[in-house]
Each structure stands twice: as structure tokens, then as C-alpha cells.
Amino acid sequence: MMPTPQPPPPGHHGDLPAGVQRTGRQTTLRLTAVPAAEAPPLDGPTRLMAIAAVLALVGFLGLGITRSPAPPQQPLTWSAIAPPASTAIHPWRFIVLHHSASRGGDAQVIDRDHVAQNGWDGIGYHFVLGNGVDMPLGRIEATFRWRQQSHGAHAGALPLQKQFNTDGIGVCLIGNYEKQAIDPLVERRLVELCARLIDRVPTLSVGRIIGHRDVPGKSTACPGRGIDLERIRYLVRQELMARGMTVR
Ligand SMILES: [Zn+2]
């Protein structure tokens, strides 16, 4: 038979330390000043413990300093990605997000694959974003398609998919986001990239950031369930507002 539960004893929150009085619902702390001269001298073990406590505190603070996060990277500027001044900006209407569905890679590897396997004139994307394998984490690389403001090759060959190639900026996140979550730094850089593009290209808007899976006629998981489009759009809107850029 189970023992009958006993009501908790009075004062079960714990005994009050010396000097603390509980009066009704209030707890008051009574401080008694002890002049330094009258303070009892510390005996040996107590002194050692005091020294240890001070050392621990110093160590803790030191750790806090060394572990403080590195200053945030400079946010992406337009000049870092701007195509040559002689190249007119295409009236892009979509930002289409992809993942490479691979462990690593970079623009060169994808370029080689797209030429060899698909017979294209080069990498199909406009931007590639590194995941720290083969390409530095959070590094944004613009490809020849962006520099030339030429159409992409990333959204499919069906007639209803055509506009997503002709007017869609293809952004490829290196990694497999069907299997992994997006790294906070990669997400930050992606948000900055989308914000800069929307700020500079009047035909773009936050609502036109889509995933490859959102292209009609596509049965793909790309860019993977690890990429939450709603969250990305929310963060891009925040970024535009925070930096005084055009929100649309
Ligand atoms: Zn894709």
C-alpha cells in the first residue's frame, strides 16, 4: 500500500538564513553592520576558501570575456555584390532559394557539374552561399550570371517554369537542408543578401522570396525542410526596416 502523502511541513521552502525575518507575506532582510576592526579574523581553512572563491570568480569573469561572441561581421553591402556599372540591372521578379543537397561544394564545382551533366553554359545559379565545407561559412559568391545580369538555369524547363529562370535570381545554399538545420551565420548572410537585392531591384519584394519547391510543376523538396521560407521572409523584412532600406 502506498503511504499517504503528508502535507508539507510548515516552512518547507527552507529555513531562513540568519538575519532574515519573514513577517506575514513579506520577507525583510535585517543587516547588521560589523565594523571592520571588530570583524572576527578568518581562520586558516576559511581564508583558503575565501581565496579559492575569489580565484573562481576571476576565472569565471575571464572566461566570460574570452567567450564573449566575436563582433558581428560587417553586414553585406551592395558594392560587394553590385554588377559592373555598365551592366543594367535586370527587372528580376523572384528570388528562388535552392540547396546543393551535398555535404560541401562551391561555385566552381557546381559550374563544372552543370556544364558536364546538364550541358548548360555554366552554373545555373546567380549566387552561391558557403557552408564551411570547401567554401567559407557564410561566404557569398556571385556567379557570371549575376555579373552579366543574365537568366538563370535553376527552375525547370516547363513553359510555366520559364519565368522563374528568366526573372528569378537563383541562390544556392551549399549543404543538404533536408538533413540539417541552417547555420545562424548562413541564415544571416542569406537574409542580408535578399534584403540588399530587394532594396536595389524595384521589381522584387519580400513576398517573392520563394523556394525551388514553390515553383509550379515542381516535385522537389529543394531547398529542404531546414529552410523555413516564412521565417526567412520575416527576417528579411526586419533587416530592411532595421537598415532603413526600402520595404516592399
Ligand atoms: Zn533547387
Give structural notes.
There is one protein chain. The protein is α/β, with parallel strands linked by helices. It has a domain at 90-242: Peptidoglycan recognition protein-like (Lysozyme-like), CATH 3.40.80.10. Helices cover 32% and strands 12% of the residues. It is built from seven helices and seven strands; from the N terminus they run ββααβαββααβαβα. A five-stranded mixed beta sheet has the order 5-4-6-3-7. A hairpin with a 2-residue loop joins strand 1 and strand 2. The longest helix has 24 residues, at 44-67. Residues 7-36 and 64-69 have low confidence and may be disordered. Zinc ion is lined by residues 98, 212, 222.
Short recap of the structure:
The chain is of the alpha/beta class.
Give the arrangement of secondary structure elements.
Elements: E1 20-23, E2 26-29, H1 44-67, H2 78-81, E3 94-99, H3 107-118, E4 127-129, E5 140-142, H4 144-147, H5 162-166, E6 168-173, H6 184-200, E7 209-211, H7 229-242
Bound molecules: zinc ion (ZN).
The site of zinc ion (ZN) has 3 residues, from loops.
Which labels suit this protein?
248 residues, alpha/beta, Lysozyme-like, 5-stranded mixed β-sheet, two-stranded antiparallel sheet, 7 helices, 32% helix, binds zinc ion
Bound molecules: zinc ion
Helices, by number, come to: 7
CATH homology superfamily name of the domain at 90-242: Peptidoglycan recognition protein-like
Whole-number mean pLDDT:
83
Q: What gyration radius follows from the Cα positions, in whole Å?
A: 30 Å
Structural class: alpha/beta
In the CATH hierarchy, what is the class of the domain at 90-242? Alpha Beta
